[in-house]
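Example protein
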Amino acid sequence: MIATDTLLTYFTGLQARIVTAVEALEGNNGGRFRPDPWKKEAGQPLGGNGLTSIIEGGRVFERGGVAFSHVTGAALPASATAKRPELAGYAFEAMGVSLVLHPENPYCPTAHMNVRALIAGKSGEERVGWFGGGMDLTPYYPFADDIRHFHGTCKQALTPFGDGVHARYKQWCDEYFFLKHRNEPRGVGGIFFDDLNEGGAGGEDPFERCFALTRAVGDAFNEAYLPIIGKRRNTPFGERERDFQAYRRGRYVEFNLVWDRGTLFGLQSGGRTESILMSLPPVVIWRYDWKPDPGTPEAQLYEMLPPRDWV
């Protein structure tokens, strides 16, 4: 049985824990999240509510958002039924936490994390549910130790769910966060899963197992990412590093607006635009056919982007 209240309790609690941890990293004189609660007005195609917590101009994070949303609709949007056309026209309920954190220091990587549940069904029928989510790292000046820590924490979170699970979700992440129009990874990956509704080898209930796996991923984010920021936040930088950071942020924007299924789902279903686009960085630049000079620190990033076994 799908327990909606249990899902809501977990997702809202996860958002609060991450916000608290990020504010602790900012320190007493650092940035604070601004809570922006919202609710869909009656008569709109999409119903529901949420809380978008935004930080801008912090000592550590130039911009970031940690958003909880709980929305309902009369029919699944096209992005949600591409692989399951038989669900076209089903009413749905979706909830989850999505975050993106953009540090000011170019030696600190950007991070993205999302965990979500989607429940669908027709009136009088038993509802079905799926989970999705993951986290990934987008460095500008990569440090191998930081990348290994991030991937190692992801692997540890998924180890209890069976042999090969981490390897499968890591590959899924490498393939998903890829800019096909540039033949280039967005970052150094992490883990990713979608449309998850499967039991374990021991006969576990699919919903309970997938919810447990989703919780393990969400709960691992603070440990996977925040120690990296604590280590790199005070690294000196100048205009050169900021310029390259802004250039690489352009790749982040391109992926989110061209390829990301979550962005398309939100926009196609009539979601709240400000919350959907909170992931975009505050400062971005593009250049025509620019490439870093060989042997430079900027060129090193491109050498470390291709997928590999970091752990």
In short: Strands lie at 34-39, 46-56, 61-73, 91-103, 110-121, 128-138, 178-179, 184-185, 189-196.
